[in-house]
Structure prediction request, 205 residues.
Amino acid sequence: MLHSLNLWPKELLMLERSFTPSEAERNAWQTEDMYEQHIQRCLWQRHRSAAHAILPNYTPVGWHECDLYVVSRAYRTVEYEVKLTLTDFKADVRKRRKHKELQNRCGKNMPNRFFYAVPAMVVSPRDVPDYAGLMYFRWSAPERARRLAAPLAAVIRTAPQLHDRRVTDATINEMRRTAYWRFWNERFGFEDYRRNSRAWAAAKT
Prediction:
């Protein structure tokens, strides 16, 4: 669910300064136990009605692996790089080849837009390169039982358009083929796990 910044606690936005220890402690529940899958689910909900294809952990032909890759109805692409900690964010920025291509807007099959997707309080906008956008995510309630299945999201900084090229139907078909084989691998893996679990349980009795 995408929220207006006006609905977010100002302490979470980190627009001008770093958090004090007391602020960080007071807001720790906002991002506790938040994982990549939670952020991917939120982004899927955001794009699902206006996209040809959405695929997590996907490597487009000629590009780098994407935590989430989206092809819009207008055949434009968006890459989301999910980072859960500041250490992970800094390590990603040090990927020289990828970020040089993004900065110079010269990568083959690079996305039209590139976002960092992070839990609130993790990365400051001033640390994000100018060729990237930034989104924050937080939980809807302190109590786990009252939280939505996916966190709330807010666009802190809109990603600039890196180029205006459109992808083709071949790109979308390749994503769908990848999802097709991934589905069957997951299905068989789950069935094998369930069968083995029953066998182990029977062996213990």
